[in-house]
Each structure stands twice: as structure tokens, then as C-alpha cells.
Amino acid sequence: MAAPAGHTRLAYFEDMWALRAPATGSGCPQEEGGRRAVVLDATVFHPQGGGQPADTGVIVSASGGARFLVEDVRVKDGVVFHYGRFEDAAAGDGCGAEFTKGQSVTLEVDAERRKLNSRLHSAGHLLDSCMTNLGLHLEPGKGYHFPDGPSVEYKGVVPADQLQDKKIQLEKEANELILKGSKVLVSVFPYEEAAKLCGGALPSYISQDSTPRIVKFGDYPGCPCGGTHVADIADIGNLKMIVLSNILGNWHPENF
Ligand SMILES: [Zn+2]
């Protein structure tokens, strides 16, 4: 799928398993917001967003002579900025000629960090299924899938006298689903098909002209998501609920 002119093609959108891929420089590594940034025609790096932290890794020039260490990735107006520094400071002097427009580079995402981020993100979505299974039909809101205290917010209230029980039940349900395992489907679909996979309707912020990317756990209804996920629910490993409150629903996946 081609990206709009000037936009970076998000390769992980179509294939989130590709952690190593070629790309082409879009120009001189530039100073952006006081940091040095590499911009490419396409990227397998997941930029911070949707509650998921950025990937890290390295971008290597065709000759192998210049290595740019990617410490943070952000997307702005459709352009992905890979922030970081050249491993050898001298290679980055001036323009860093090997990264200029039209030059081939190879992208390598840090696999361990990606795996953790995917497990945390999937665990957040799994909680939605557990909520439904427990009869808690609350609409999921913001997710925070960072390792330092991941959480999911829901619109609505759990009666105060049920919080402790529900917390225990949610954790039990989550770990049962993890033990059972089920395929995780992540793909881009035509709007109508995407709506069907999500139980018939999509949130209004999704344009009817778009081809939404959907994540779907087993037989549960899917939902729109731009993040990365595990291949099977079993790969989440284990999930421990630390807090369930009417201010912020918090959980913590253990053994991560
Ligand atoms: Zn998501």
C-alpha cells in the first residue's frame, strides 16, 4: 500500500513481523526539535503512539560504514522521525552522506524491546475481552502499554463493593485465556469488512474512506489498532492485576 506523497510508509502496518527491512533515505538527517532525526520512505519502526512506546534499533548504511542508533521514533503529519545518533560521531558530520536522499539503508528493530511492547499491548486488549466475559460492558478508552505500570481506562463505573471481586476474576479470566491461547489477527481491511469484524460498527473517528487496521483475538470482536501484537494470546505469558479502581484501572503483567 503506497503512502500519501511525503508520508513515510508504515511497513509494520502490513507486516509487523518484519524487524529487518530495507528503506531509502528521504534527505539529510535533520535536526528536529533539537534532536537529530533520520527520515526514510518507509519504516518497520513503530513510532510512539496509541499507548505503545517507540521501537529502538539501528539504521545501517548500504556500505555498512555508518550506523545510526535509533533511540526514539515519532510520527508527525505522516512523517516518521527516527531520533538518535551516529555510532561513530564522525560518520554523522555534516549530512551523513550515506543517509541522503535516494540512498539505500537497512533498518533493524530491537527484537526484545518490540516483543515486550507487543506483549504489553496485547495484554491491554485482552483485558477488553475479559471485561466482556465478566459482564462488565464498559467502553474501552485510553490504553497505556508502557512497561512502567501499564493500564487501561474504561468509560463507566464498577460498583465499589464489587471492585475487589472483579479484580480477582479479571486476573483469573485473563490467565485462563492466556493458557488456552488463540490466534491474534492483525490486518488492514476495507471499511465494511473492518466494521463487520468489530461487531458491526467502527468508532466515528475512523473515516469511511479508509482501510482500517484491525486487531482481533480469536473469536472476540476486533477493534481498530495501529500497534504491534503477539501472534497468539498464549505469548502474553501471564497477567497480574495490581489495581482495579474507578479512577484508573491498572494491571501489571507479571514475568515481563
Ligand atoms: Zn491497540
Automatic annotation (TrEMBL):
<dbReference type="Pfam" id="PF01411">
    <property type="entry name" value="tRNA-synt_2c"/>
</dbReference>
<dbReference type="GO" id="GO:0004813">
    <property type="term" value="F:alanine-tRNA ligase activity"/>
</dbReference>
<dbReference type="InterPro" id="IPR018164">
    <property type="entry name" value="Ala-tRNA-synth_IIc_N"/>
</dbReference>
<dbReference type="InterPro" id="IPR012947">
    <property type="entry name" value="tRNA_SAD"/>
</dbReference>
<dbReference type="Pfam" id="PF07973">
    <property type="entry name" value="tRNA_SAD"/>
</dbReference>
<dbReference type="GO" id="GO:0005737">
    <property type="term" value="C:cytoplasm"/>
</dbReference>
<dbReference type="InterPro" id="IPR018165">
    <property type="entry name" value="Ala-tRNA-synth_IIc_core"/>
</dbReference>
<protein>
    <recommendedName>
        <fullName>Alanyl-transfer RNA synthetases family profile domain-containing protein</fullName>
    </recommendedName>
</protein>
<dbReference type="InterPro" id="IPR051335">
    <property type="entry name" value="Alanyl-tRNA_Editing_Enzymes"/>
</dbReference>
<dbReference type="InterPro" id="IPR018163">
    <property type="entry name" value="Thr/Ala-tRNA-synth_IIc_edit"/>
</dbReference>
<comment type="similarity">
    <text>Belongs to the class-II aminoacyl-tRNA synthetase family. Alax-L subfamily.</text>
</comment>
<feature type="domain" description="Alanyl-transfer RNA synthetases family profile">
    <location>
        <begin position="1"/>
        <end position="247"/>
    </location>
</feature>
<dbReference type="GO" id="GO:0003676">
    <property type="term" value="F:nucleic acid binding"/>
</dbReference>
<dbReference type="GO" id="GO:0005524">
    <property type="term" value="F:ATP binding"/>
</dbReference>
<dbReference type="InterPro" id="IPR009000">
    <property type="entry name" value="Transl_B-barrel_sf"/>
</dbReference>
<dbReference type="GO" id="GO:0006419">
    <property type="term" value="P:alanyl-tRNA aminoacylation"/>
</dbReference>
